[in-house]
Design a protein that fits this description.
Length: about 425
């Protein structure tokens, strides 16, 4: 039997099986196709960026490993992304950081302008995709003390305020040019290594700086601001200025998006539980889907319990209010595979959630039929959702199952390994 025939046949059986639970698999796939996942450009080059002088990481973020073939410039990164987009079904966006500007000459971070990202805008137009954006408050001499927007030094603070303002203009232009609001996420590394005495003063300075950065009202149709908290980072173990409570309060007060990164909480604390709460008070949120291993180590997203829980919460609370971004950087494996594996897993988890009889489950819960609820949830786990995802991949003209690795292996040989 031809492979496509087999996939179709298995799909039809799966469709029938899910229909018995009252679930329409065609409808689920239509919904899945419309849920965008924003790929983080920084997996492609270990968060190095393309600034002509400074750049790289600091402030507690770090990519480890030396797998060959990382993208060294914007053209290489775009080539890798083109390939990744061919291996991932569904709606994709690209999430850029300010350090990925595409220029011949060095440009200071407080002087970057939309034109420095024109090649990305052109690329996105051509690929019929959209862009998200991030100011880069790290990997720079002005961030050497791990204090940027909350620095006690007004010169440092002002430099980064100017960077934030410059980035919002860029995000606005990206959203305008591509006809889709650009989500701009603000994460700063600010924190202290050791016992911190005046936490309130640092946090007050951060509020003031953010107020200045966000002062200009920009149309929601073009760009939207998100703020991302963190628990700790290497080198800033004792106090993170932009903590969860800080940004929760700031986002609520200013009606911004709250960004929840799955690697930024205590080891047993999960973001899946935070989505429903946040959405009761905020219009929209942003997720940085990642995988912490012991600490905020940014591993490739796998199909684990928390990913399934996150996806289920997205579907139950309204996918249109949750912007899904990925955030990890593993330099020990092929970087194109890292994108492909993580994004496909995100989609698989969304699909599994779309294939759950949410109303039946909620009714069981409301009627305290806890035994039945548990039994059904567990049975759902071994239902043929893989056949539905395979069919989705086939219909979207991307490789089905493990076969995407053939393409990655040949791309690695012919393109990435030649970069050394
Ligand atoms: C760092 C944050 C932040 C970064 C990216 C590069 O801990 O998670 O989102 O990973 O912006
Ligand atoms: Zn993050």
């Amino acid at each position: 039997m031809a492979n496509s025939e087999k996939i179709e046949k298995l799909y039809l059986i799966a469709k029938e099986t899910y229909a018995e639970l009252g679930i329409d698999t065609d409808q689920a796939l239509e919904k899945l196709a419309g849920i965008p996942v924003s790929l983080h450009c920084w997996q492609g080059d270990d968060v190095s960026g393309f600034e002509k002088d400074a750049g790289g990481t600091s402030g507690g973020i770090l990519s480890t490993g030396n797998y060959p073939g990382r993208a060294r410039n914007a053209a290489e990164l775009r080539a890798d992304l083109d390939k990744a987009f061919q291996l991932i079904p569904g709606t994709k966006r690209l999430n850029l950081h300010a350090i990925y500007l595409d220029t011949d000459q060095p440009v200071e971070r407080n002087e970057i302008r939309p034109e420095h990202f024109q090649s990305w805008i052109d690329w996105a137009k051509e690929k019929k995709t959209a862009l998200d954006f991030n100011p880069s408050y790290f990997g720079h001499p002005m961030a050497a003390t791990n204090l940027t927007l909350s620095s006690p030094d007004s010169g440092i603070r002002n430099f980064w305020i100017e960077h934030g303002i410059a980035c919002r203009k860029i995000a606005e232009e990206m959203g305008k040019a591509l006809g889709s609001p650009c989500i701009m996420n603000t994460w700063i590394p600010d924190g202290f290594k050791d016992i911190t005495v005046d936490r309130a003063a640092a946090r007050r300075r951060l509020i003031e700086s953010l107020d200045t950065v966000f002062a200009e009202k920009i149309s929601k149709d073009h760009m939207r601001d998100a703020v991302e908290s963190k628990l700790f980072g290497i080198g800033v173990e004792s106090c993170t200025v932009g903590s969860n409570e800080f940004y929760m309060g700031y986002a609520l007060k200013n009606n911004l998006l709250l960004c929840l990164d799955s690697g930024h909480f205590h080891p047993t604390e999960v973001i899946s539980d935070k989505i429903s709460s946040a959405l009761l008070f905020l219009d929209e949120i942003l997720l940085h889907v990642s995988r912490p291993v012991r600490w905020d180590s940014d591993h490739v997203v796998i199909y684990d319990d928390e990913l399934q829980a996150i996806a289920a919460e997205i579907i139950r609370n309204g996918a249109e209010r949750v912007h899904i971004g990925l955030d990890y950087f593993d330099a020990t494996i092929n970087r194109l595979a890292a994108w492909t594996i993580g994004t496909r897993n995100m989609q698989k988890a969304l699909l599994a959630a779309l294939l759950q009889p949410q109303k039946t489950l909620a009714d069981m819960e409301a009627a305290s039929q806890n035994t039945a609820k548990l039994a059904l949830l567990e049975e759902l786990k071994s239902m043929p959702f893989g056949a539905v995802y395979d069919y989705f991949c086939m219909k979207q003209n991307v490789p089905v199952g493990y076969s995407f690795m053939n393409e990655i292996e040949s791309y690695e040989k012919t393109v990435q390994l030649k970069r050394i």
